[in-house]
Amino acid sequence: MSWMYLLIAGVFEMGWAIGLKYTQGFSQLVPSIVTLASMAASLVFLSLALRHLPIGIAYAVWTGIGIVGTAVAGIFLFHESTTPWQVLSLVLIIAGIAGLRLTSAA
């Protein structure tokens, strides 16, 4: 269950990172509330995952999910440009996340 909590935390991590773009410096009320709620939810689920997972592994996976998800969302939602090297780098992050999960005893 800890890995599921960590996955959920990572999705909320993506949510608040993307939400920051919509808050326009926290000047937009609804996006700001959603972003702050996503931040809180991300931390709650991360703390639940940390009950049984090592902090180093959990933090790396949590931020990795946020990094990759936010980068991909930026490409699709905001039409941000990307290069093959950037895509390769994201694939390497995904491989790292998978490797941490596959080699974790928890």
TrEMBL record:
Keyword Flavoprotein attached: no
UniProt keywords, alphabetically: Cell membrane, Membrane, Transmembrane, Transmembrane helix, Transport
Major site of localization recorded for this protein: membrane
Signal peptide (residue range): none
Ranges that cross the membrane: 29-50, 57-79, 85-103
Topological category with respect to the lipid bilayer: Multi-pass membrane protein
Compartment(s) of residence: Cell membrane
Highest taxon of source: Bacteria
Gene3D superfamilies from the UniProt entry: 1.10.3730.20
Annotated family: Belongs to the drug/metabolite transporter (DMT) superfamily. Small multidrug resistance (SMR) (TC 2.A.7.1) family.
PANTHER family for the chain: GUANIDINIUM EXPORTER, SMR FAMILY PROTON-DEPENDENT DRUG EFFLUX TRANSPORTER SUGE
Name assigned to this protein: Quaternary ammonium compound efflux SMR transporter SugE
